[in-house]
């Protein structure tokens, strides 16, 4: 049976630490793009969107708000494509949440880094190995999805 020790940092796994840092920055950029969408969809200033966006308590609620407003948006932009682009970004948040809110551990014998997710059902695998490659792939996909959404949005005034 495997034995795990909780981690309090990734000093011995700099490739994973770097990938996670990149993930944090990529998600901040995605959120900025979603605020840009809010500016356009709600016809509000950047400052107003920045203040309002983070008053909505969760990422899921922010996305639902944006998607609910799009059908009423008076625009020549492709509303369906924008909705789909927002949904693509939103669909990636579960993976991010597992890394951010999981319990980071290292297997005592092999040194393999894993994240325990006790919100997952027992038969869904509550611990998953963490590899920098997987995080980097997530970051690359998020950046591509964010750029795609940004291209669809009208320029900010």
Describe the 3D structure.
With 157 residues, the chain is α+β, with helices and mostly antiparallel strands. The longest helix is centred in the N-terminal third of the chain and has 29 residues. It is elongated.
Helix content: 55-70%
Question: What global shape is seen?
Answer: elongated
Low-confidence stretches: none
- Output the number of helix runs: 6
Mean pLDDT: 94
Q: Order of strands across the widest beta sheet?
A: 1-2-3-4
* Rg value: 18 Å
Please state the structural category: alpha+beta
- Listing every helix as H and every strand as E from the N terminus to the C terminus, the arrangement reads EHHHHHEEEH
Distance between the termini: 60 Å
Kindly state the number of beta strands.
Answer: 4
The share of residues in extended strands comes to 5-15%
Features:
alpha+beta; 58% helix; 157 residues
Quick structural overview:
Helices cover 58% and strands 10% of the residues.
Q: Topology, pairings included?
A:
Layout: E1 4-6, H1 14-42, H2 46-53, H3 59-69, H4 79-91, H5 93-101, E2 103-107, E3 113-116, E4 127-129, H6 132-152
Antiparallel strand pairs: 1-2, 2-3, 3-4
